[in-house]
Amino acid sequence: MNVSASGVNMNDLRNSLCTYPDWGYVIYRTTFSVESNTLFPGAIKCIEAYIKQAFFQENKEYPINEPNGIWAKHRSTIVQDPAQFNGVSLEAIRAHFEAWVNAQGMRDEWTKWRMCMIIDEESLQTLKGTKGTSVEALENERPENSDNELRCVKVLEPFPYMDQYDKFPGWMKCWNALWDLWAMMGDGDEMRRLFDCIDAFPFEGVYCG
Fold first, then answer.
1. DSSP line for the chain
2. What is the pTM of this model?
3. pLDDT tens by residue, 46-86
4. What angle in degrees, to the nearest 10, is found between the helix axes of 34-61 and 178-185?
């Protein structure tokens, strides 16, 4: 599924940066073990490298002006307070994020506030030992390594519409499609659209694009 055909979302991002100072995921950290203190910075670098790789790959297919300038404004917003977030549930993160979004009057205003990422202990362990902390490293990574290693983070949608019969829990696991997810949510679509398209192969329950 190509959620950003013809580069429309890339142009939308460039136009949005006339209003907003930067772009990128709000990332909640919910694990604060001694090991996580060592692993977390590398996990962030790896996530950003995957987004950067996909961003520039799309620009090769649908060229726009000044992609370097757009990427230069990419910033991950890291939320990490062990006293408040250590081991908390996804619902607690949702409540905090929704309150934060409402306090800024940003509900449904822009992609950055339509979802957030969570790196908990489970996600962090899937990224443990990952060497792909730069685009160059990812390009040199052998395909068989990528296919056989489950990596994922959790991405949560605030204010989801759900009922008792809904299979969509308001969040999903995602990996190398993080740029695609950003592009799709930039159109104001609901996350359930991708959740409903998750395939069982190669990793059941993880959106990989």
1. --TTGGGHHHHHHHHHTTTSS-B--EEEE----HHHHHHHHHHHHHHHHHHHHHHHHHHHHS--S-HHHHHTTB--EEE--HHHHTT--HHHHHHHHHHHHHHTT-TTT-GGGT-EEEE-HHHHHHTTT----SHHHHHTS-HHHHHH----EEEE-SS----TT----SEEEE-TTHHHHHHHHTTT--THHHHTT--SSSSTTEE--
2. 0.86
3. 999 999 999 998 888 777 778 899 999 999 999 999 999 99
4. 70
Which structural domain range is residue 149 located in?
5-207
Bridge partners (DSSP) of residue 163 are none
Residues belonging to the chain: 209
Over residues 161-185, the mean pLDDT reads 85
Residue with structure tokens 């362990």?
125
State the total domains in the chain: 1
